[in-house]
Amino acid sequence: MTSQIYTELLALYADYAAVVDSTDWNRWPEFFLQDGAYRLQPRENFDAGLPLCLLALESRAMIKDRVYGVRETMYHDPYYQRHVVGIPRLLSVTQTEAGEVIEAEANYIVFRTKRDGVSEVFNAGRYRDTILRTPDGLKFRLRLCIYDTEMVSNSLIYPI
Amino acid sequence: MDRAHPIFDTTASWPGEGSSRVPFWAYTSEAHYKRELERFFYAKHWCYVGLDAEIPEAGDFKRTVIGERSVIMTRDHDGEIHVVENVCAHRGMRFCRENRGRAKELLCPYHQWTYSLKGDLQGVPFRRGVRKDGKINGGMPADFKPSENGLTQLKVARRGGVVFASFDHDVEPFEEFLGPTILEYFDRVFNGRTLKLLGYRKQRIPGNWKLMQENIKDPYHPGLLHTWFSTFGLWRADNDSQLKMDAHFRHAAMISTRGKGGKVAEVTAGVDSFKESMKLNDPRLIDIVHEEWWGEPTVVMTTIFPSVILQQQVNSVSTRHIQPNGHGSFDFVWTHFGFEEDDDAMTQRRLIQANLFGPAGFVSADDGEVIEWSQEGFEQKPSHRTLVEMGGTDTADADHMVTETLIRGMYAYWRKVMGE
Ligand SMILES: [Fe+2]
Questions:
Q1: CATH code for position A136
Q2: Which residue in the set B284, B355, B370 is minimally distant from A55, CB to CB?
Q3: Which sequence spans correspond to the domains of chain B?
């Protein structure tokens, strides 16, 4: 049973990385529940219990607004990004009224490569996830990305 | 190559009269940059160090910088706030390494010299030598005076929960430094309420530090570069607005009142960034609730030269600290906060509106990008100059946004202080 869940978790993490590294960001919101949240937070704030995030997108609708912002409204240097996601840790599986809830985490590194540049480590951190099993598969209730790279190399545009 | 106009001219002087054409070398010259540190950051100016709310308890400290000099802001046992330089009096080591923390005293681990939270030297191991076999070995000279060997202590100014400091103990009083016009906008935000710290966001922007001052002295660009500002009427050429400076033209406030947004031919026609059909899926991103203390304006952006920008953009408030590191780079540290009277809904609103700002912000990410691209242009041919002539060549206050007067004002001041 646990190995079945673990395999599903691996697939979820791999699919997520593939989508955010592609330019097909319209599929990014689909990983979240309607009331699911995406938060990208400097580790300094997380450790100090300070609530501010770099991005705090509190619903699938708000995540869609971010996609529109990235695609249509934000002038930026174009870049490729490449996620390398570590082997996840399955922290807990709980049966709730809403369904099966999975808590998990994984380390990640994102490399950034600009058109005229060399590849650089852009953002290193840890995903801390709360996931709900739904008829449409596993969906994030919360994907919290806690990043060590507190000094952002100028600006961060695409989803981590 | 044209011999009369070399690309790299180290003897170049300021081109022409006034301050409407800024030479690229003002952003690329390492010698001028060092002179800026000396004259703006290390003398005669008050520089931002932080908020009271970051160090609420006795013994709390925060490490930050003024220019390139590392300093520590501490809260003493009597509640006083001190700012000392993070360089040990003994061998010059930058000893404090944590961003924030709590301590009874300041300790340099190298030889365990200790200082009070005020920076006074307290302990020197083996100061009177070490006794062995009836003989005293070593020790500091008899005339060594701990009272003359403390950490460099800065002059501190506190107002409304914000802390400024200066290496220059002859600096004018903080209120005079701001001048009455800018002080009014400072006090509008920091009117004595206790601030509630929400957190930090940091970015390293590969551009000259002055470009960030200019960015927030430039009301011409927001309605053009930033889709969110033009489309939702947060900042546009047709909004009621005022531009005000201090008597020296170094500080400024851009004051504006949100308009209706939508399509108005004169200001949106031909503007690539304007999106007439843009609708938010989650309106909480711009769920603006008017706060009593704003008065009429919905946004006031205040630039305090040289070190900080005060942001009130609807419900999002922050300080933005400019920390230069070399002529072509600076760290930009955003400290977001709220107020003690905020309920949970207001705190949440401030946190969600923060998505517009910061290194990933719908609005502010673009600013970091254009600063990087500007610096690239300057490095390419330092003998050229920018054209800062929207709205004329003067440095007067204005009652509209279609002008670069605040940037011209800043360079008029820069020329005077720099002797250029
Ligand atoms: Fe801007």
A1: 3.10.450.50
A2: B355
A3: 47-156, 175-418
| d(C-alpha B23, C-alpha B285), whole Å | 40
What is the distance in angstroms between the Cα of A3 and the nearest Cα belonging to chain B? 37
Q: B235: CA distance to ligand 1 center in Å?
A: 10
What is the Cα–Cα distance from B153 to B263, expressed in whole angstroms?
55
**pTM of structure:** 0.96
Contact assessment for residue B103 and residue B61, using Cβ atoms and an 8 Å cutoff: yes
CB contact under 8 A, A51 and B285: no
How buried is B99 (Cβ within 10 angstroms: 0-12 exposed, 13-18 middle, 19+ buried)?
A: middle
Residue of chain A nearest B329, judged by CA positions? A154
* Domain residue limits at A89: 2-147
pLDDT of residue B265: 79
Question: What is the secondary structure of A24-67 as a DSSP string?
Answer: -GGGGGGGEEEEEEEEEEEHHHHHHT----SEEE-SHHHHHHHH
CA A51 centroid distance within chain: 18
pLDDT in tens, B300-327: 999 999 999 999 999 999 999 999 999 9
Nearest to A149 by CA among A128, A124, A121: A124
To test the contact with chain A by mutation, choose from B285, B316, B349, B373 the residue with the greatest count of A C-beta atoms within 10 A, namely B285
Interface predicted TM-score (ipTM): 0.97
Name the architecture of domain B175-418.
Alpha-Beta Complex (3.90)
B 375-404: CB under 8 A from A: none
- A52 domain residue, yes or no: yes
CATH class of the domain at B47-156:
mainly beta
Under a CB-based contact definition with an 8 Å cutoff, are residues B302 and B320 in contact?
no
* H/E stretch holding A140: strand A137-147
- Residue A158 located in a structural domain: no
Per-residue pLDDT of B183-225, as tens digits, reads 999 999 999 999 999 999 999 999 999 999 999 999 999 988 9
What is the token pair recorded at B393?
């060549």
With cut-offs at 50, 70 and 90, classify the pLDDT of residue B156.
Answer: very high
Rounded to the nearest angstrom, the distance between the alpha carbon of B313 and the centre of ligand 1 is: 12
Rounded to whole angstroms, the Cα distance separating B130 from B190 reads 53
Number of domains in chain A: 1
